[in-house]
Amino acid sequence: MKLSNALSIILISNRKSIINTIAILAVSGTVVELLAGIWDATSHLMLEPDLFWTIQHVAVYTGVGMITCSAILGSIILIFNPQNISNKKGLKFLIIGTLLQITAGYADSIFHEVYGVDGLVTISHLILETGLLLSALGGFLLLSSTKSSPKIILQLAILSVLLSSTWIGFNFMLLFASVSLCLPIYEVFSSGCAVL
Questions:
Q1: Whole-angstrom Cα distance, residue 69 to residue 74?
Q2: C-alpha angle with apex 78: 160 to 131, nearest 5 degrees?
Q3: Which of 49, 65, 68, 173 ranks highest by number of CB atoms within 10 Å?
Q4: Which helix (H) or strand (E) segment is 30 a member of?
């Protein structure tokens, strides 16, 4: 028996539990990433050094790693068993969001190497936040398509979609109305406003 046939049989027989695992991992990763992002913003407030390899960034990219694991599992399902998947849209959102976050993470590390400190509103952060929103939406769609997911996880999925869309909305608002909005909050996100 070919490896691809054996993998297809495993994926078909355990599809619901695998989709649940993917969704829970994606939602958990977005929650970790959001909490770590708040921690990182708080460290800016406390004027701590802002380098790429701070514990706050490691926590952010731990969340990205969790989301990446879920996207890899989702990709395997899409490759080996594409015809029997009712939630392709959720998996596609998750995979695209993961690719955006990995790309943005690399760009963020380069930004830190070149400039040292980065701000709240940078291209790499906006791409990372867009990927976070897509990943959160993908996790929510996957959970809502499976009726056996725990209620608390579904609530966390809804909360992660709302918080990630609020976060990116706030940053786009700073980007487009930088002078009028940045000056009053300069003390909170001083390096973020400096990049604008």
A1: 9
A2: 30
A3: 68
A4: helix 15-45
| Closest-CA residue to 88 (of 99, 74, 101, 102) | 74
Predicted local confidence at residue 126, as pLDDT: 86
Report how far residue 56's alpha carbon sits from residue 37's, in angstroms, rounded to the nearest whole number. Answer: 7
CB count within 10 Å of CB 104 equals 23
Please tell me the distance from the alpha carbon of residue 82 to that of residue 194, in angstroms, as a whole number. Answer: 47
Low-confidence ranges of the chain (pLDDT < 70): 1-15, 44-52, 81-86, 116-121, 177-196
Which of 42, 45, 40 is closest to 57 using CA atoms? Answer: 40
Among 17, 19, 28, 31, which residue's Cα sits nearest to residue 74? 19
* pTM strictly above 0.85: no
User: What pLDDT score does 30 carry?
Assistant: 94
Q: What is the pLDDT of residue 68?
A: 94
Q: Is 81 exposed, middle or buried (0-12, 13-18, 19+ CB in 10 A)?
A: middle
Q: For the residues of 74-113, what is the DSSP string, one character each?
A: HHHHHHH--TT-S-HHHHHHHHHHHHHHHHHHHHHHHHHH
86-142 per-position pLDDT tens digit: 678 899 999 999 999 999 888 877 877 777 665 666 788 888 889 999 999 999 998
Secondary structure (DSSP) of 101-170:
HHHHHHHHHHHHHHHSS--SS-HHHHHHHHHHHHHHHHHHHHHHH-TTS-HHHHHHHHHHHHHHHHHHHH
